Amino acid sequence: MQIHQVLVSAAPGDAVTDAAFELRRLLRRLGPSDLYARYIHPELEDEVEELDHYGERASTTLEDDVLVFHASIGEPAVFAFLRDRPERLVVDYHNISPAAPFYPYDPAFAGLLEAGRREVAALASRATLALADSAYNAAELAAMGYADVRVAPLIVDVEPLTAAPELDGALPESLDGPVMLFVGQLLPHKRPDFLIQAFHVLSTYLLPEAHLVLVGAHRLPRYTQALRFLLSELNLRRVVLTGPVTDDELAAWFRRADLFCTASEHEGFCVPLLEAMAFGVPIVARHFAAVPETLGDAGLLLPPDAGATVTAEAMGRLVDDRRLHAGLAERGRARLAEFDPDAARATVLSHLMSVLGS
Amino acid sequence: MAERPQDDDAPDVDALIDQLRLTVEQRRSEGLYPAGLEDDLEAHFRRIVSHRVVPDTSALDASLQRLRSLPGLSPSRIPAESGVPGGAALHRAVAKVVSRQAQGILEQVEELASALRSVADELARALRQPNTHVHPDLVGQVDALQERMAALERQPLDSPAAVAELGRRVERLEVAEALRQFRAPFSAADFEAEFRGDAAALKERYRDLAARFEGCAPVLDIGCGRGELLELLAELGVEASGVELDPELAADAAGRGLAVGAGDGLAHLASLADGSLGGIAMIQVVEHLTPQQVVNLVGIALDKVRPGGRVIIETVNPQSLYVFARAFYVDPTHDRPVHPAYLAFLFRQAGFAGVEIDWRSPPPQEETLQLVGQPHLDANIERLNQLLFAPQDYALIATR
Fold this sequence. Notes:
By secondary structure, chain A is an alpha/beta fold.
């Protein structure tokens, strides 16, 4: 039996690609296991195979083999491939961003997201097993008609990041005053625009010396541009958009941060929450999608109706109240222990094995 | 994942969030957070998203990427094979001959291609820098638009509707003011003749006051009327002049050789040099003034009268109820009587050295309540007489 994984696109720093690499390390203990993708970033050309070349692989046990599909966006060619192959299919669902927030910025991409949901639903009857990063994702799969859905938390190993060397000059900016840190791609459903509004309130009325640092790739030029216009029109000079960063730089930002904040309204898991916990950085987040599940009690989880002012007050309070700061940081470390990567590896393997046989 | 039990020392996040909401409400009610702050911020961002058009350069980026990734020019990528018969050896020989030429051409083409690639890169860079491709005409047009916009913003005051509305309001104000003003259908001279008695009697009444100005030249008589006081001062040899609001009265006085001008006495006083007067007289004038004018008068008088000089203000005495029953309301231009205690207070406060009150014009004895010869009753009658029939006028005499 061979187990291979299929991705729509493989890119360095992408959470789904990282999860696939992590799973490949596990699966290779069992036998031959490769990664196939429709779109491959040039940096990963040696690590990931072209999906078109999948058929060239030699196998004598096709019906016994397994394809693990990481579902995170739509792609007709990949869907057709998965539908028509004879191998057994496992769908690993990382959730698909909602399409609506993308329409004003990139209608074509929004269309792909919508197609992605339809395709995942259409694979329900074909799948032997479905894995979900969170109970939130699992509920969506069940609603789509998947019969056997198991929750297998994302395998997140924060150790390498926390062990990153502390280098002088790792931060591109020298900043005074408290730093509010967001880590994530600048995409509309993650609502960095909301964070900027909250920061406007914070720096105008409560903590003028504060900084907001948004760390992450800018995937949607029109949206990034809109954020820049907002920053310039609100005259928020203490907001930094770093763009993509190296692990060393990311670690440096976490070490410098006074708190981690996210206004995201859609997450399938939200890895940066665990990273913030690992660095003892307390979290302000909003009660949406899988965020409460990953965060647990380890942060200030604001209700969905809490607006920019309440969010700003929460940030200000966390900076001022050292006892609260320490208390939440402590809870974060405790919460992180529940996401032990070895336990997560064992969980995913046991789910796979229980269905697929050894 | 199992929930950990809550430790007692841990922060209660729900209570904290409730507290944060209360804080926001409080700051909102205190005005720290402006009303509609959140809605405005959100609407602001929505406006940016819906109005800004950001050029999509992704196609250009892709083309540039492809251009950069094209392999360089090399003779090895030019096939040496040919369908022409002649054998491989011949082809190789020909290829060898041609390849030197080809190499030279390729080098020049490569040079050109490299130059074109940098031009393309430069153009793409310039495209992202608005200031490198702004057309002066366009800037001019934007400036012109901004000027027009600024002009429009100033417009509302000039708009016909606004002007018409302002016009209507001014008309209403004029009507209201006209109603408020008193325009007498009679002459001041007739009024004085009717109610103040003849000039000779009046002159007698002020002889003693005129004497108080001896050594206080020059004296200004504000509201001098027919000029009785000025005549008395002239008789005493005290240099004096007067100002009278009513032109008819002023002309009459001037006609009798007195130095009287028509006009507003207070304005005239204010126009004089500081310390240039020895005395100021105001006979039956302050009851025509507003409280603010009275206050102003005292201040100006202090400036204009030299040290040792004198201000005499004679007016009706509001402590006498008889005055209100008889004289005060006969004159429709009387604004309000000024209480002697208040007027004395004003002068002392202003810094006048001596302030005295001279009670004047007691009501005729026959009009007062008569004593009846019974001690208890008479004591009460005396008290009533004091209240009802106190002197009708008083003169405040202030020394600078």
